[in-house]
Amino acid sequence: MNDTIAAIATPFGSGGIGVIRMSGPDAVAIAAQFFSRTRTGPPFTGNLKTHQVYHGYFLDSGEVIDEVLLIPMRGPKSYTAEDVVEIQAHSGTVVLKQILECLLSGGARLADPGEFTRRAFLNQRIDLTQAEAVADIINARSTAALKFAAAQNTGALKHQIQEMRNQLIQVLSQVEVSIDFPDDVPRENDPSQSTADIDSVMDRCREFIRQHEEACFLKEGICLAICGKPNVGKSSLMNRLLSKEKSIVTALPGTTRDPIQEAMTMNGIPFVVTDTAGIHDTDDLVEIIGIERAKDHIRGADLVLFMVEPGTALSEMEFKKMVPLDKRMLVVVNKIDLTRDTNGQAKPGGPGLPELPEICDQIPKIHISALHNQGIQPLKDKIMQLCIGDLTMDGSAVIPNLRHKTALTKALSFLESAKQGLLTGQPEETLAIDLKNSIDLLGSITGETASIDILDTIFNNFCIGK
Ligand SMILES: Nc1nc2c(c(=O)[nH]1)N(C=O)[C@@H](CNc1ccc(C(=O)N[C@@H](CCC(=O)O)C(=O)O)cc1)CN2
Ligand SMILES: Nc1nc2c(ncn2[C@@H]2O[C@H](COP(=O)(O)OP(=O)(O)OP(=O)(O)O)[C@@H](O)[C@H]2O)c(=O)[nH]1
Ligand SMILES: [Mg+2]
């Protein structure tokens, strides 16, 4: 990286200030050609000290382009670990472009998307998980996602993966000793320490993989669909969850036709909630289309709230027609006020709890009254539990990233094979290959063994100037 790159680091459009940054060996010299402490020049020739803020003017052939602040940051104590210069100018596309063009004419090259962060990685200031965390911070859609990305940015995931990888390197070195010096190691060497080490790394891989879906929910948000027969109170629940009158509620069955969608956050996690048309057999053309759309949303949902009301019965056939069985689902028994008083005592003469087919036995259930605002907080807690599970929000390492999951899954299968090899006394050479493969796969997560293709996919998804 012996050239110097430059880019506008702030978004296009007007704003308070705009930042242009440069990184590379000539960054300070290039900036100095255009910088003066006074409006009339001459260019600053003194020594620009690192991590100091200089007030002055950006001049193009003696003409003031803007009043700016200039910050030199000498490597390795900089974002890229190279010499970095930031120029803070007034924001506005024309000003920033003009300054950038001067820097390019002065010897800098326009940076590729993500190239600053790529340099930070190539200069080993950060690893790949931290580079990915930078992108996740920029794209975070919720406070929860931001918290995990920030933890990853400080190296939480890197350290865990490195620990696992080091543990395997230990095992591999034992194996290699017995390949190289077979006479020094008793043949019937006790493999239990090695299997224990492999087991512990496998457990940690499994734990990351198990939490992957929950971690994705944090990052991407969760789609909830409220569905059920007409008039059970779906729209009433929608409005309760949103705390506003979004959907029309009437005593008439068939009120909701089009799916009604709205975004909200619960416990810092983004949700998109969809209220759908009541599903039943009908000849009404509008309702038929509404029901088709309801089913599309049910298929696309991460969690289906399947609503039923007291005094009704549902056959297995009816149930299967409404929701696919493989869905993450919560049965919401609404209008519980009709069967129970506020103390939970059965109301004499009131309708009984809905009768559900046996296949619903395993599905979690919750009782609420959307009309009387009862059981809404327990419902929210249940939704969180079903989607996020035991993922604690303490910012510990998670893998909200398919690349990590794929690498861990492959590493796991090599470790499985290595463990079998150990137990069945297979040749050390085969064992060593399995171990090396899993070590490389863990290394690909942090970037120690990542290919150029992986780097390109990661950094090309960044914006220019990052
Ligand atoms: N103006 C500005 N604001 C910014 C950034 C930036 O580059 N410029 N950042 C860009 O993303 C973020 C801050 N991230 C940064 C991370 C590391 C270093 C850095 O210079 N690290 C060196 C020196 C640390 C030190 O002096 O203690 C290092 O780690 O060696 C700078 C910014 C957000 N805000
Ligand atoms: N007693 C009682 N009535 C409720 C409750 N929740 C909703 N209702 C009433 O049930 C009726 C239907 O409510 P909606 O929310 O429109 O029901 P829906 O499932 O959206 O109906 P469709 O859109 O027609 O499928 C309205 O009269 C509501 O006031 C509840 O918890 N208890
Ligand atoms: Mg409705």
Automatic annotation (TrEMBL):
It is found in: Cytoplasm. GO terms for biological process: tRNA methylation; tRNA wobble uridine modification. SUPFAM superfamilies: P-loop containing nucleoside triphosphate hydrolases (SSF52540). The keyword rRNA processing does not apply. It is an enzyme of class 3 (hydrolase). K(+) binds at residues 231, 250, 252, 255. (6S)-5-formyl-5,6,7,8-tetrahydrofolate binds at residues 21, 86, 125, 466. Its EC number is 3.6.-.-. Gene3D superfamilies: P-loop containing nucleotide triphosphate hydrolases, Probable tRNA modification gtpase trme, domain 1, tRNA modification GTPase MnmE domain 2. Keywords: Cytoplasm, GTP-binding, Hydrolase, Magnesium, Metal-binding, Nucleotide-binding, Potassium, tRNA processing. Mg(2+) binds at residues 235, 256. Binds 1 potassium ion per subunit. InterPro entries: G_TrmE, GTP-bd, GTP-bd_TrmE_N, GTPase_MnmE, MnmE_dom2, MnmE_helical, P-loop_NTPase, Small_GTP-bd. Coiled coil: none annotated. GO terms for molecular function: GTP binding; GTPase activity; identical protein binding; metal ion binding. Its main location: cytoplasm. GTP binds at residues 231-236, 250-256, 275-278. Homodimer. Heterotetramer of two MnmE and two MnmG subunits. Belongs to the TRAFAC class TrmE-Era-EngA-EngB-Septin-like GTPase superfamily. TrmE GTPase family. PANTHER family: TRNA MODIFICATION GTPASE GTPBP3, TRNA MODIFICATION GTPASE GTPBP3, MITOCHONDRIAL. Exhibits a very high intrinsic GTPase hydrolysis rate. Involved in the addition of a carboxymethylaminomethyl (cmnm) group at the wobble position (U34) of certain tRNAs, forming tRNA-cmnm(5)s(2)U34. This is tRNA modification GTPase MnmE.
